[in-house]
Amino acid sequence: VKNKAPAEVQITAEQLLREAKERELELLPPPPQQKITDVEELNDYKLRKRKTFEDNIRKNRTVISNWIKYAQWEESLKEIHRARSIYERALDVDYRNVTLWLKYAEMEMKNRQVNHARNIWDRAITTLPRVNQFWYKYTYMEEMLGNVAGSRQVFERWMEWQPEEQAWHSYINFELRYKEVDRARSIYERYILFNALHRYFFNIALLVIVHPDVKNWIKYARFEEKHSYFAHARKVYERAVEFFGEDHMDEHLYVAFAKFEENQKEFERVRVIYKYALDRIPKQDAQNLFKNYTIFEKKFGDRRGIEDIIVSKRRFQYEEEVKANPHNYDAWFDYLRLVESDADAETVREVYERAIANVPPIQEKRHWKRYIYLWINYALYEELEAKASKRTRQVYQACIELIPHKKFTFAKIWLLYAQFEIRQKNLPLARRALGTSIGKCPKNKLFKGYIELELQLREFDRCRKLYEKFLEFAPENCTSWIKFAELETILGDIDRARAIYELAISQPRLDMPEVLWKSYIDFEIEQEEYEKTRNLYRRLLQRTQHVKVWISFAQFELSAGREESLSRCRQIYEEANKAMRNCEEKEERVMLLESWRNFEEEFGTDTTKERIVKLMPEKIKKRRKLQAEDGSDAGWEEYYDYIFPEDTANQPNLKLLAMAKLWKKQQQESEAAEMDPDKDIDESQS
């Protein structure tokens, strides 16, 4: 397509959604149910189903879902031998399919064929030993059967394959369920030894450092601690520290070690562990270690001292940033997070006061968007952390006084303040705040929030007044008109709802008039006021002659459910066709005629069907010149045009004009040939 310019008439998203919603109602009829009354019919049914399944398998043997459906169908008939045979045939086709093994074993377990299930699991783990799901299912089955020794044997076979971490922990949890602590300890030792050997061999083979995860050592130590073997737990931590050395120190190991010693009331050992780690781990990798050390000192040490030692560096960094640029609000946010986590309430308030004192120098909303969150965080801190409701109210009021409402405002602040007052069970102050906001700086979001509040309180008279104020402020907002009318409809005041709709459609400017008219029409249809609905359609057609309106009008008449509905619908189509004869967009007229034709095919007679066929246009391809923006020739483009029989009948000289144009073209070609005879000679020789 050469012309890539957008079409003059665009389809809106609302139209697409409406059509999709209308087509959802087109449901397919369910298949007929077959009732089997005797054995012969049952055998015949089985034979036909088996033949169907076998044909599907023969067409494509590699589709495992066909095998599974076949076997499950045989299982549903209690034909276990047949189902087993089908699964075996399927395994011959694809023995690597995990789902096939699982379905096969589940069938045997479901039918209480324990030995068969064991046989299948043994084959599965032998064939595909790296599929952990087989091992989990096998051990779970043995444990459910009470065969603890058999389950342990399966776990031992699994551990020989050196599986992933979760498998080892499953084995350990299995032993702990049966109070076998010594066995669980030996499994931990084997696992830790396996990790150490794994690291050693990788170092030799790859010449890189690949050390095992610290969390395995921590889990081992916590296991010993849980079972009150504190000396063993301490020994595990010490072995881990020695194993990783100073080259691969991890803060999580030292944090866990320190917390263990803290639980044992060994506070001096805790300090030694923290200091040893902090002296050797880089500062950027020891954030969690710093945090836990600070918490420990808060509990058992001098708070001021630890605060000066650990937090001073970060505070100094943030102080330098905010001094260099006081309007760097991101630095203030980071500084406040640090202070909130460590300092007392007075220090936090002091930093907040310093931060909010840096008011943006320009009264433009884009410069205030980050700054306003300082106030929001301040208020939330006072309410949630400091539990000071009076100070929270003062923060909100100071923020509201600071914002230049004549130029811009923030609806979020007003709504948060009102919600705070509601949480304090102070409804009059919340209403006063929202009323002040609407009086000073009305916004759609403020009206919606206030209305939602009153709806939750079931204050419908206040909702009506708010809607009236809202519509005085923004009469072009169709959504507000619709919500107001829906509220009156829910309250049962149909006349008020209708009056609201009438006021809405009489507005000179609306943002989404098509949505408003549709809502009004749907409202009248729900009230079964068909005559008023017709009048609405007529009034809408006086404003717009869009084809969708005509089609919707005709479908409404068809769905009215009365005797004269067909004639009314056909009359609407007649009027629409006459009205759209002078329409420049021929595609809309074609759309109307196609809708009319579908109607006649379903409800019309032979005469009406023949008539609508005669009205259908002829589709022809044409060419037209294109011009660029500067007026130069931009080539030709092809397009489709429609010729309607009615238009041709009204122009009897159309054929004569076409013949005259053809004759003129032929004359021009002959004159050009006489003026250039050499060209004709060359063409004849070629």
TrEMBL record:
Listed Gene3D superfamilies: Tetratricopeptide repeat domain
Main subcellular location: nucleus
Gene Ontology BP annotations: spliceosomal complex assembly
Statement: the UniProt record of this protein carries the keyword Repeat: yes
Residue ranges, annotated region (Disordered): 666-686
Acidic residues compositional bias, start-end: 671-686
InterPro entries for the chain: HAT, HAT_Syf1_CNRKL1_C, Syf1-like, TPR-like_helical_dom_sf
A cellular-component GO term for this protein: precatalytic spliceosome
UniProt feature coiled coil, ranges: 523-589
Cell location: Nucleus speckle
A Pfam family matched in the record: HAT_Syf1_CNRKL1_C
Function: Involved in pre-mRNA splicing process. As a component of the minor spliceosome, involved in the splicing of U12-type introns in pre-mRNAs.
Family: Belongs to the crooked-neck family.
Record-given protein name: Crooked neck-like protein 1
Native species: Ceuthmochares aereus
Gene: Crnkl1
